[in-house]
Specification:
Layout lengths: L2 H44 L7 H14 L6 H19 L3 E5 L5 H9 L5 E5 L2 H10 L4 E8 L3 E2 L1 H9 L3 E9 L3 E4 L9 E4 L1 H6 L1 H7 L4 E4 L3 H8 L5 E5 L1 H7 L2 E4 L9 E8 L9 E9 L5 H11 L4 E8 L7 E8 L5 H11 L2 E11 L6
Parallel strand pairs: 1-2, 1-3, 7-8, 7-9
Antiparallel strand pairs: 3-4, 3-11, 5-11, 6-9, 6-10, 12-14, 12-15, 13-14
Bound molecules: prephenic acid.
């Protein structure tokens, strides 16, 4: 190779580096633009306005044409921005969201609170069905429970992350309050109570004290329990207030759960990778190597880097007996240098490590 052509190659490599840097900035700006358009979309749908505003779009295109110094041609500029606006408009459209149903369960309430009420919410009978729907692209997001402050982890959700390519896009906490609901709202009339095993467990003391002779009948969900309570005058259901509204039941006794603070954490799953906000967490899963002190060694970089470990959970690895998968939530975003370096150090002590997502920390009142 001649000295001249190797000089040219280096020049091209340098120019390409500059182009890569600009592309990074364009990508960041495009995502910021889409996020702003999403926020406008939410406000528009809340106020009943149409998303499409042709006049505003045209004024954006005219304004940019007037500002364009070249060498980009006016025609190309227009084409590019027509596509950029189309992408923003698409992000403003109502989304399809799958959740662990049926309707009026706490997961449904969490999904409604997190997304826009005008989005389409689709109930599914199992957590796996929610994952499947988002994986296939039928729904853009899924909402699933992941842990309860009293009952602990929702193991099925954790296990599905092992196989799934979906990310955790967000978390959301919901204070769980169980009401005793019946057709008349009269406590004296109640002889049979329907509910899911979890609410029964969480209301044990109240039930023993106030309705010790009532027959307790387990159902697949609190919504199903509410439907059963509609069928007899002496029946009641333990369920949330959303079920009372949906099935037109009256509150015979409000907030009958034994613990004052009962909060469930839900995850929003999808393909988005949220940008750092300055107050984020990163969720990972890993399988340790079969060496003495493997877990200690795998976790040591977290302590050494001064990062807060927000959660540590373990589940049996199904491919091998007495081998475990660990789930860890770390303070910080995976794009932060400190988190990146910490994960790189952890890798040396893990057979397998997977980043499940980096997303904004949600407020919890628990
Ligand atoms: O400004 C608005 O009203 C928007 O909704 C944002 C936006 C855009 O991407 O700039 C998107 C859709 C509308 O048709 C007009 C403009």
């Amino acid at each position: 190779m001649s000295a001249e052509s190797s000089g040219q190659d280096e020049k091209i490599a340098n120019l390409r580096r500059s182009i890569d840097e600009i592309d990074d900035t364009i990508l960041d700006l495009l995502n910021r633009r889409v996020s702003l358009a999403e926020a406008i979309g939410t406000l528009k749908t809340q106020t009943g306005n149409r998303v499409m505003d042709k006049a505003r779009e045209e004024s954006i295109l005219q304004r940019l044409a007037g500002l364009n110094p070249g060498p980009l041609s006016s025609e190309m500029l227009r084409r590019i921005f027509v596509d950029i606006i189309a992408a923003s408009r698409q992000a403003q459209e109502p989304k399809r969201i799958s959740f662990l149903g049926p309707e009026a369960t706490f997961t449904h309430v969490a999904a409604l609170a997190f997304f826009n009420e005008l989005d389409t919410f689709v109930p599914h009978p199992s957590i796996r069905d929610v994952f499947d729907d988002v994986e296939k692209g039928t729904s853009r997001y899924g909402v699933v429970p992941v842990e309860n402050s009293i009952e602990g982890a929702v193991n099925h959700t954790l296990d599905l992350f092992l196989e799934s390519e979906l990310h955790i896009c967000a978390e959301s906490y919901l204070a769980i309050s169980h009401d005793l609901l019946s057709k008349s709202g009269d406590l004296e009339k109640i002889h049979t109570i329907y509910s899911h095993p979890q609410p029964f467990a969480q209301c044990r003391t109240w039930l023993k004290t106030h309705l010790p002779h009532a027959e307790l009948v387990e159902c697949g969900s609190t919504s199903q329990a509410a439907q059963k309570a509609l069928l007899a005058d002496d029946a009641a259901a333990i369920a949330g207030s959303a079920a009372a509204r949906l099935y037109d039941l009256k509150v015979a006794a409000p907030a009958i759960q034994d613990a004052v603070r009962n909060t469930t954490r839900f995850l929003v799953i999808g393909r988005d990778a949220p940008r750092p906000t300055g107050n984020d967490k990163t969720s990972i899963l890993f399988v340790t190597a079969h060496i003495p002190g493997a877990l200690f060694k795998a976790l040591e970089p977290i302590a050494a880097s001064g990062l807060n470990m927000l959660k540590l959970e373990s589940r049996p690895a199904r491919h091998k007996n007495w081998s475990y998968v660990f789930f860890v939530d770390l303070e910080g975003h995976v794009e932060n240098e400190k988190v990146k370096q910490c994960l790189a150090k952890m890798e040396a002590f893990c057979q397998f490590i997977k980043i499940l997502g980096a997303y904004p920390v949600a407020l919890s009142d628990a």
